[in-house]
Each structure stands twice: as structure tokens, then as C-alpha cells.
Amino acid sequence: MTPGDELAGKVALVTGGARNIGRAIARSLAAGGAAVMVNARTSRVEAEQTLATIRSAGGRAALHIADVTDARAVAALVDAAVREFGRLDFLVNNAAVRVETPFAEIRLEEWRRVLSTVLDGAFLCAQACLPHLIRAGGGTIVNIGGLTAHRGADHRAHVITAKAGLAGMTRALALDLAPYHITVNCVVPGTVDTLRGLPGAPERPAHRRSLPPVGRRGAPEEIAAMVRMLCGPDARYITGQSIHVNGGGFMP
């Protein structure tokens, strides 16, 4: 993580910040000078490791366990961030459920769980953060999208639907929140090297085995760098966009 001070004095809330891209985002924002409230639903040990890496580098971070599909839990999460750090400037909606199930086998409960985590979570967090972003004089919401929402994939109808909805929500919020000087964008990762499952788990599906034109998978830190840039002072004219970070794997 490149250290800097462009986010000094600012405060970020990162959902799904326990590991992988969420952890990298939390670390990157902290490296830029922001204090970070890390959220996780159940992965306390991994989330505490995220905090430890931030603090060991001299950053400020706190942890709040909460289910982003629960309105009361989200309100408590946002209150905890403001109580801990005094304000709120950035929201990163990264929490998601990533599962693969053939369409004919998707149960309604699984369908609702995926859509609720991605869409209800982003909705509830954005609404709860809004008064604080306005009070801060403006801010940034970054939604973490999905490449398959733009090009499709087998066995991911619920995930694709949720992530496609998140791209639409991004455009809607960009219009609604522009008068408050709040920018809203969606960062869409390509195929990224992340830890999923346990050793001995099934091989990556075909759409994640192939390499993009640059010849490698991306690193979580490369996604995090785009999020950090969008939160910074030089990105205030960027809003309503789905920004692809994919090594050329998809060129809209």
C-alpha cells in the first residue's frame, strides 16, 4: 500500500472488510490517511487481522460486527463509526454472498439471501450513512460490482442479478445525491486472486480460470487502489460510473 495523506481527517466505513478485496480496500483507505470502520457479519477473527495490519502500519481502524441486511444492525454500525471517529465521509458497499448453483436448483431462500446481502445491504447502509455524509459536506459511496453482471456466467443467476442491480442503484443514487456533493460509483473487479473456500475445494469455474489479455489475474490491492482514488479529492467530477478494473478481460 502506498502511504499518503490525501484522505487525512476523513472516515470510511467498509462492509465485508474481513478479507480479500474488502480487507485490501480498508488497508488502502487507511494508508491514504482515513480512519476506517471495518464491518463483517461473522468473520471476527479475519476482521481483527484486518485491523491489526492497519494499526501495525500506523493507521486508525475499528471493528463492528453486523449483518447488513438488518436495518437495526446497520443503524448501530453507522452510529458506532460516528461515535468512534466523529464523522463519516466514505461508504464502501463490499458485502456480498458469492455462490454458484445451477438455476434449476436455486431455492428461493438462497435467491433472497444473495439479493438481500448485495442490494438490501447497499440500500440500508447508504440510507443510514446519508445524514452523516451530508453533515460532512459531501462524500463518496463506492459499490463493489461484479464482472459477471456485465458478461454473464453459468450457475450465478442470483449473484449476477444482484450485481446488475447494484450498477443500476449506482446510477440512481448518483443523480439523487449529487445536490449534496456526494459521488456514487461502482468499481467492477475482473478475475482477482482471492481466497475462497478451504484447501481441497473445487477448482475455479471456467470463467475464473481464463486469464485476461494482460496475462494474469488481478490483485485485491489493484481494486482497492481504484476505490481509494474515487474517495480522493481528485475524483470529485466522477459519479454514476461503473468502472472496470479487469486487465482487459471485458471492454464495454
CATH topology, by name, is Rossmann fold
User: Span between N and C termini?
Assistant: 29 Å
CATH C-level label: Alpha Beta
User: At the fourth CATH level, what is the homologous superfamily?
Assistant: NAD(P)-binding Rossmann-like Domain
Number of contiguous helices:
8
Arrangement of strands in the largest sheet? 3-2-1-4-5-6-7
Report the biggest beta sheet as strand number plus sense, adding barrel if it closes: 7 strands, parallel
Question: Which structural class fits the helix and strand makeup?
Answer: alpha/beta
- What overall form do the CA principal axes indicate? globular
User: What share of the residues does DSSP label as strand, in percent?
Assistant: 5-15%
Order of helices and strands: EHEHEHEHEHHEHHE
Tell me the total number of β-strands. Answer: 7
* Helicity range: 40-55%
Proper CATH architecture = 3-Layer(aba) Sandwich
Write out key terms for the chains shown.
252 residues, alpha/beta, Rossmann fold, seven-stranded parallel β-sheet, 8 helices, globular
Any chance you could write out the topology, listing elements then pairs?
Elements: E1 11-14, H1 20-31, E2 35-40, H2 44-56, E3 61-65, H3 71-85, E4 90-93, H4 108-135, E5 139-144, H5 148-151, H6 157-177, E6 182-189, H7 206-209, H8 220-231, E7 242-245
